[in-house]
Amino acid sequence: MTIFDQTVEGRTGFRLPEEPDYGFEISNDLPTHLIRETPAALPQVSELQVVRHFSGLSRKNHSVDSGFYPLGSCTMKYNPKMNEEAAALQGFSQLHPYQEENTIQGALELMYNLQNSLCEITGMDAFSLQPAAGAHGELVGMLLVKKFFQLKGEPARTKIIVPDSAHGTNPASAMMAGYEVVEVPSNREGRVDLTSLKLLLDNTVAAIMLTNPNTVGLFERDICEIQKLAHDNGTLLYYDGANLNAIMGYARPGDMGFDIVHLNLHKTFSTPHGMGGPGSGPVGVKKELMELLPVPRVDFDGSKYLLKYDLPDSIGKVRSFYGNFGVLVRAYAYIKTMGSDGLKRASEMAVLNANYLKCLLEKMIPAAYSEICKHEFVLKGSRLVAEYGVKTLDVAKRLLDYGVHPPTIYFPLIVDEALMIEPTETETKETLDSFAAVIANIIDEAREDPSMLKSAPNNTVVGRLDEATASRKPKTKWF
Ligand SMILES: *Cc1c(COP(=O)(O)O)cnc(C)c1O
Q1: Domains in the chain with CATH codes
Q2: For the segment 177-204, what is each residue's pLDDT rounded down to a tens digit?
Q3: What gap in Å lies between CA 275 and CA 364, rounded to an integer?
Q4: 395 alpha carbon, distance to own chain's centre
Q5: Phi-psi category of 404—alpha, beta or left, where left has phi over 0 and alpha has psi -120 to 50?
Q6: Which atom of ligand 1 is found nearest the CA of 279?
Q7: Whether the CB of 326 sits within 6 Å of ligand 1
């Protein structure tokens, strides 16, 4: 039954306040063509019915606050509630983007300090907080690369090298910025194949985009050599830092020789995310690229904080106003409450949890790469297909019946029947053990009753969907 079916004529759950006396007339003359002729068909229900309706809907969703969410690459980690309180403080949440600079000094100071913290964490020289997501950060990064070579007078650099294990947004962002994407294969270890990379590097290559640790959860241990190859060739190095969970406090992209990085504050720096935002994908650069960053820049002149627009080499504006400010407040609160020791500890626990869980699971489903991993790892489900005809998709769907969000599946593309798992740092050993027990159960089920797995999930609100249709033609209405 929908909330519309609960309607009882004349029942209401609200009362409007008396109109205050403003001391002047409020004009009500809306253009007549915009005025409704018949009242909106709203359900007529009590306040409590509305509360139950929305609380009920919210419980139909899986979230990291309601259960384990080991979604590889996406870092669905616990977001401390204190950060929510910070972001909700009236002094932050009630600001208007058109306010005068002298009335938003606190907000600017927070942004300025956050820029500096991110510089310190990543080893970069300057940050822009404007990009609204990881993919947006990548696009900004690619536009910086473009501007850099334009100013340098090297228009022939038209290619971006991207590993075959890369997140799909990498080639997409490079394409959107007008680049030709060239794929570099991974070697048997799951790392960038240096021999192939050398063959691809010539004076038409503008940048190499890398994630480190990469998407199979392995540290690119040849990074120093890669950076030398790139820079000797006049090529820039771009770091996809969407997930920094494995290396915070231990290694910095800036020290590895990267020229541009983006971070996903909504992943590593604790903003609840998924299903479209809000996110934040700040972009950091080395000195040589600083002047190219988007406007406005948040700066400090020694006595006050200000927004700088007058930067002639800037790539310009990339977003309305100054970025997703609420996400910035959460990230700042997170960094400040964790401190540098805390961030380091988070990396340690993320890596420990991933390796512990990998050891439990690889006895049941082989790991794509056997060595010690960083914050995530990839299993290869092809044996389940061969033995029981059960696909990774079926395992993922069955996990929903056990109240667990499935891992990332079929990514990275280089692993057959991939399951990519990132347990994150705040999960307990007991949660990891029980997840492993659930996987063991599902494998027993695969052996005994594979057809049941084919129809899973069997006890969720919505059963198995035709995913292509569900995402292309979503049915968002009850009738
Ligand atoms: C999530 C992710 C992105 C894209 O970030 P969005 O905020 O979803 O646009 C890019 N690269 C990697 C490695 C990621 O995990």
Answers
A1: 3-7+21-57 (no CATH), 81-337 (3.40.640.10), 341-472 (3.90.1150.10)
A2: 999 999 999 999 999 999 999 999 999 9
A3: 31
A4: 24
A5: beta
A6: 7
A7: no
